Amino acid sequence: MHCNDSFAPHRCVLWGVIPVTVNGPVIYTDLDGTLLDHDTYALGDAGPVLAGLLARGIPVIPCTSKTHAEVVVLCRELGIDGPFVVENGAAIWVPEDWGLTRPRGSASASRYWCQVLGKSRGFIRGLLSGLGDEWANRFHALSDMSLREVQAVTGLDALSSRRAQARHFSETLLWLGSASDRHHFANALSPLGLRVVQGGRFLHVLAGGGKGAALQWLHEKIRQEICPAAISIAAGDANNDLELLEAADRALIVRSPVHEPPVPNRQNHLYTSTGEGPEGWAEGIQKIIDQLDEENRYGRLLPERNYYYAAQSG
After folding, report:
1. Among residues 279, 298, 284, which one has the least CA distance to residue 42?
2. Distance between CA atoms of 205 and 144, rounded to whole angstroms?
3. Which of 58, 165, 187, 308 is the most exposed place for a label (fewest CB within 10 A)?
4. Domain ranges in the chain?
5. Would you name the residues annotated as active-site residues?
6. In sequence order, what are the beta bridge partners of 29?
7. If phi over 0 gives left and psi between -120 and 50 gives alpha, with beta otherwise, what is residue 155?
8. CA-CA distance, 79 to 50, in Å (whole number)?
9. How far is the first Cα of the chain from the last one, in angstroms, to the nearest whole number?
10. What is the pTM of this model?
């Protein structure tokens, strides 16, 4: 992805494929339950839309609770070769040849550099272990589960389950207590500098970072170094995507078959899909891209009312 001065002002070329004008989009998307099916992890109806975006050179950046080990494999399978955000925004991985300068002090591995926004999993586990017996029997850390237990909870195969356990910057918990207990647990962690994020299956404990912070950090760097007019589009289905949805220029809530949609603290440029999971992702992302294409043709933003479609009534 790079800017090309041979095109009109503020035109960018994403991956050197097709010039994108003023509204050059960058898509930041959750994976499980959003781009991928919640139960089968299949791409489904999102496949053709994703392929079309990549063919146009539009970056699709996973923003997920998954680990580096998981996302590397998924990106290879999906044909995505750009940056990705892992462990609910605790770290950002960027290919060394993607066109962004590596920050001083960032780690490097396997032709990627890593910007860490949170603290280590060991630091988090140390604080959790100090909570005492009051909370010890109300959660089970994913990293402490047997391989069979992880497979039973996630539906993953053995190798994928091991990748899911390979966390470095967050602790993932299977919650065993009540919803009320969960609320009090989050309050108990706050004075320790920890926060709890509710995902589709697990609680995630972070010590810094977050999906919204990761989007803001990465997108600002893209604007400064690659494409000043890049527009951020976020897609998510759960409460751990709220910060992501609130940080982007435009946001897509993808409906879920297993829980109510998140409620971002915003109204402008907010879409809600009619379909669920990958079907809803494909529908909503295509709608937003079509809207941006239309704005590019007219050279201006269209009236706000045009940003809403039938699904908003839900």
Report:
1. 279
2. 15
3. 187
4. 2-117+210-313, 121-206
5. 30
6. 62, 235
7. left
8. 9
9. 36
10. 0.87
Q: Which CATH architecture is the domain 2-117+210-313 placed in?
A: 3-Layer(aba) Sandwich (3.40)
Q: What are phi and psi of 135, to 5 degrees?
A: -110, -10
Q: Length of the chain in residues, anyone? A: 314
Inter-residue contact 151 to 164 (CB < 8 Å)? no
User: Which pLDDT tens digits describe the chain residue by residue (314 residues)?
Assistant: 544 332 223 334 444 433 333 348 999 999 999 999 988 889 999 999 999 999 999 999 999 999 999 999 999 999 999 999 999 999 999 999 999 999 998 988 889 999 999 899 999 999 999 887 888 889 999 999 999 999 999 889 999 999 999 999 999 999 998 888 999 999 999 999 999 998 778 899 999 999 999 999 999 999 999 899 899 999 999 988 999 999 999 999 999 998 899 999 988 999 999 999 999 999 999 999 999 999 888 766 555 433 444 344 33
Q: Where are the alpha helices (DSSP H) in 95-209?
A: 121-129, 133-136, 147-154, 158-165, 179-189
Kindly state which CATH superfamily the domain 121-206 is placed in. Answer: Putative mannosyl-3-phosphoglycerate phosphatase; domain 2 (3.30.980.20)
